[in-house]
Specification:
322 residues, alpha+beta, Aminopeptidase, 2 domains, 3-stranded mixed beta sheet, 11 strands, 32% helix, globular
Length: 322
């Protein structure tokens, strides 16, 4: 029996046999949210037994074009067309999700995406095609640990003020809506010479990103006294996938004010000391910037105006994949 995926009240229906059923259900719900919000399409799946033709086609593509044979049994699948794109999804018991898409006028120009549910191991058949990274490392300190520590402190401070805060995984929920989105990072230059923080918004910015960046820049500097290293802001920051809504499905919605903050250089002794031994101050500076922005730009302004954007083709998230 087919199931129209509910992304509001997330259910594990059809996925119960997976050891990471809850995480897989969340991944499936994110896909449903994206297609409903962007295309008004109801994401409807069928059990593997009824979707055998679709699953066989995906498996043939994987074998012939990628030399991959998936070991885990498929649980369900869906195939549909929106605009000029044909989309096919298969969800596996292991927690793996695979999608294949192609433009109808170029059916051989196929893209294949792999997504792993939180808590699952990388399937052996994918080998070294998917590699997890922890970002910059220096003097025994990993960027991922610094980022998470400060993110948790920020969440605590904002929660006390009455705000709901999500700490998101690498794969952003498709079309993610929020009053503010901030990506936290710590940089490294390989030499220990560079120092300071960097901040940027997307090149396809909404009407309020300039104010968000300005508020964060000033409040962060007040607390940390770190210099701003504007010279080394790169296109990788301004085109950061998490808010590059014109290119990627799994990114913030166009209305969501978004920025990326490189809090300092882990490779610099002074910057690293600030992030490790004044983590409360770092978090407070960021919270002050967010609060200042929200005071200046209430959500009635953020979501009260229409945005006109050119039609875009949504590509897969640049999460690790072959």
């Amino acid at each position: 029996m087919s199931y129209a995926v509910d992304f509001v009240n997330v259910s594990t229906v059809g996925l119960e046999s997976s050891p990471v059923a809850t995480a897989l259900a969340g991944l499936r719900a994110n896909e449903a949210r994206y297609f409903k919000n962007k295309y008004d399409h109801v994401f409807t799946v069928e059990p593997a037994a009824k979707a055998k033709k679709t699953i066989d086609w995906v498996h043939r593509i994987l074998k012939e074009e990628r030399d991959i044979t998936i070991a885990s049994p498929p649980l369900e699948a869906t195939t549909f067309q929106v605009e000029n794109i044909r989309w096919t999804y298969v969800f596996y018991e292991s927690g793996l999700s695979i999608n294949v898409l192609y433009p109808l006028d170029e059916p051989k120009k196929r893209a294949v995406g792999f997504k792993l549910s939180e808590g699952m191991e990388v399937p052996a058949e994918l080998g070294s095609r998917i590699v997890f990274q922890t970002g910059t490392s220096w003097a025994g300190v990993n960027e991922v640990d610094v980022n998470m520590d400060i993110a948790e402190r920020i969440k605590g401070l904002l929660t006390v003020r009455g705000y709901a805060v999500d700490i998101l995984p690498t794969t952003i929920p498709a079309g993610y809506l929020a009053d503010v989105f901030l990506a936290l990072h710590a940089d490294g230059d390989g030499t220990g010479e560079n120092s300071g923080f960097k901040i940027a918004h997307g090149s396809r910015r909404g009407p309020y990103e300039d104010k968000l960046v300005a508020a964060l820049r000033e409040e962060y500097w007040k607390v940390t006294a770190l210099p701003e290293d504007a010279e080394h802001v790169t296109r990788a920051m301004s085109a950061y996938y998490a808010f590059n809504w014109g290119r990627y499905q799994h990114s913030t919605a166009a209305h969501t004010p978004a920025a990326i903050l490189e809090m300092g250089y882990l490779s610099n002794n002074h910057d690293r000391d600030v992030m490790l031994n004044n983590a409360d101050g770092v978090a407070a500076g960021i919270v002050n910037g967010i609060q200042r922005f929200l005071d200046e730009v209430p959500r009635s302004k953020i979501f009260g105006e229409d945005l006109i954007v050119a039609p875009q083709r949504g590509f897969l998230s640049p999460s690790p994949r072959p």
